[in-house]
Amino acid sequence: MTDAPLNILDGRVVIITGGTRGIGIGVARHLGALGSKVVITGRKPERLAEAIALLESENVECLGLVADVADRERAFDVVDETLARFGRIDGLVLNAQSFRPVTPLLDVTESDMNLLFDTGPKGALWLMQAAQPHMAANSWGRIVTMGTSMGLTGAAGYGPYAASNEAIRSLTRTAAREWGRDGITVNCVLPASAGHRAPAAGSDPAREAAFASMYDDNPMGRDGDAIEDIGPAVAFLLSDGSRYVTGQTISVDGGGIMRP
Ligand SMILES: NC(=O)c1ccc[n+]([C@@H]2O[C@H](COP(=O)([O-])OP(=O)(O)OC[C@H]3O[C@@H](n4cnc5c(N)ncnc54)[C@H](OP(=O)(O)O)[C@@H]3O)[C@@H](O)[C@H]2O)c1
After folding, report:
1. What's 122's domain CATH number?
2. Which ligand 1 atom is at minimum distance from the Cα of 197?
3. I want to staple 219 with a disulfide (CB 3.0 to 4.6 A). Which of 15, 243, 255, 260 is the partner?
């Protein structure tokens, strides 16, 4: 029996890609409240500056780095800059991905596929490659990827997105197998927290109706909260308490994955 609680994140250094809005900033705020030092990335400097100001106003020790996840060299810079500032890397939350408008499969272009794969599985892999040696040197690391239930169920119009997210889940399992003996766990979260993407009232009636009915068949009947619902599940996967959990996919969606 260990004396120390296993769910402590105090002082842990975690990099969150796409930490400037939506799920990423919610997870960053939750981890920051638990005492983690957080590094957030995004492409847009103004958005990054706003997110950092918000985290600092909540007394979170943090660093913002402009980085496109598709840029492999930049992934290694992100790791170097994190080490320069905080001296260690304990966790990765591989959350960022770029999107394209909904497109039927017959109209999907090579550029659509490249964008989703470059910023999805490839982007996740580049940061894993950059951080893994530092985690392995400490015999401790936690990697959380983000996938989508659309990858499992299929979703008309979301072909490149769904396929690229299944590639992320596959990489998650391979990384779990390759790095388990280095003390590194790798798991995938399928979140549901889409409120920040909802259309403004009166702007687009069809989309508003789609959003309104989104959770009709969800057991909990509501959207997830990035800070209060997604954050704690990610925190568990970043903690000591999840040390015997690896290669898994965990839906954090109020049970929505069970839809008929
Ligand atoms: N929201 C949901 O309900 C839901 C459901 C299933 C899966 N997911 C997954 O969860 C993750 C987060 O979802 P979200 O809804 O919070 O996304 P979001 O609102 O679109 O936010 C995406 C974040 O990633 C950054 N980003 C986008 N492209 C990037 C790139 N190429 N390089 C670096 N940063 C980039 C964005 O900042 P910049 O624009 O400044 O780069 C932003 O911070 C995604 O991987 C998504 O597939 C979400």
Report:
1. 3.40.50.720
2. 19
3. 255
